């Protein structure tokens, strides 16, 4: 396996462990065990856990941008693109009910550990700017950022309640409610 492949494998596995166990609970020893690699091999690629965290955030940013690009290609209307974001809570429900939202849980943990917010909230920022542009396309320029933040906070609330109560019916009802709201913006964007 090449250095690049090994490094990518480390980042992918660290991302999964950060999500499932938390950043603080994921030691290089646990990562080494999960990968069946020596700790020295991991340290060869990442000198510190902070470097690894930065690589994980960059990996998640790329994954998120790729997903957004697919939504942009697959949908002709901003409402449909927004709904692709909204439906994440259904598509990922089986993981969310076990571990919460991968973006939200890491962000919350980083706040508790007093990490600089700009380093770990970049995925939320990417979603925020993209959602804002969708609301601008709908014609809600004056409230585009407010609406983007509404959708983001809505999805975090649904993810938190999904993890707490593990009720898929609740998630479907919430998606139906937010769908009605997004569709109502076609007639009255502001």
Automatic annotation (TrEMBL):
HTH tetR-type domain location: 4-64
DNA-binding region: 27-46
Keyword terms, alphabetized: DNA-binding, Transcription, Transcription regulation
Pfam families for this protein: TetR_N
Keyword hit for NADP: no
Molecular function terms, GO-annotated: DNA binding
The keyword Repressor appears for this protein: no
Name of the protein in its database record: TetR family transcriptional regulator
Biological source species: Agaribacter marinus
Source organism phylogeny: Bacteria, Pseudomonadati, Pseudomonadota, Gammaproteobacteria, Alteromonadales
